[in-house]
């Protein structure tokens, strides 16, 4: 059967949810404890167990918000075991539909796992929807993982989507490249030591002045770490419209909800500090950049610079 006419497994997400009330999972093995049932309204997705009338928990709000637009199951209740009936009923209108298989995974060696179990959600959709759905997951910072073991016979004959498609160039990377290989132009554009913004004065115990290249390196790092900084290599990414936060740090994934409460020049990430070197690679660039007047003057006659560093660099 063609993969374009049959849903494909596009990946899975593992999350933890807190069990409501006194419901206890009693797995008979260290693997799958129970299939789940999902029910959703306009705002939330609730988790049920077969033979239980009351909800036992709900999916995180951001994940619910991402999934709800795609849940076009024929019934309000979605039995999240192997989905043959769901696939047959949706064949006539597969646009923007997403099927979810889910189950609780518990560890019999961990007595607390029955109260905060790992919920494994596996997602299926048609070929034409894959790119759009994956991009929607990425906008909310959810990364789909490929299952380590997958048997299509256990999933209504749905094949596993090939990793080559998921890593297509049409899907944007998680974060942009921070530095270009066009090193000469980058060095010319580096801020000079005088461009270091005003900062809170250091404690009086710190009296060691910064060398010119250290000050330049600090200016580079400082501007990268300011959410509204002017650096072309800024480490803060602006969130898409409608998100619950305004910016996300692309390295630490820290999110902030408002710029208004921030001091203008307050870094919120983590400055790369190595003693007073402030990072050997940055300092190597800054050391060359502090001599950029000579670099510009002699650009046509520049020679290779040998930098001798430790082998670990």
Describe this structure in words.
There is one protein chain. The chain has 313 residues and is α+β, with helices and mostly antiparallel strands. It is 21% helix and 16% strand. The strands form three sheets. The chain has a five-stranded mixed sheet, with no helix packed on it. α6 crosses α7 (280-289). The two termini are 51 Å apart. The model is unreliable at 27-33, 73-94, 108-113, 168-183, 260-264 and 269-277 (pLDDT under 50).
Ranges where pLDDT stays below 50 over 5 or more residues in a row are 27-33, 73-94, 108-113, 168-183, 260-264, 269-277
Q: What is the string of helix and strand elements? A: EEEEEHEHEEHEHHHEEEHH
Mean of residue pLDDT values = 63
How many strands? 12
Number of domains as seen in the coordinates = 2
Structural classification: alpha+beta
**Sheet with the most strands: spatial strand order:** 2-7-8-1-9
Number of helices: 8
Inertia-based shape: elongated
Task: Provide the gyration radius in Å.
Answer: 26 Å
Strand content: 15-25%
Major sheet: size, sense and barrel closure? 5 strands, mixed
Helix proportion range: 10-25%
Measured between the Cα atoms of the first and last residue, the distance is: 51 Å
Write the layout of secondary structure elements.
Blueprint: E1 8-16, E2 32-35, E3 37-40, E4 45-48, E5 57-58, H1 61-67, E6 77-79, H2 84-90, E7 99-105, E8 118-125, H3 130-139, E9 159-160, H4 163-166, H5 183-189, H6 212-225, E10 236-238, E11 247-249, E12 255-256, H7 280-289, H8 292-297
Parallel strand pairs: 1-9
Antiparallel strand pairs: 1-8, 2-7, 3-4, 3-6, 4-5, 7-8, 10-11, 11-12
Protein name: SNF2 N-terminal domain-containing protein
Organism: Austropuccinia psidii MF-1
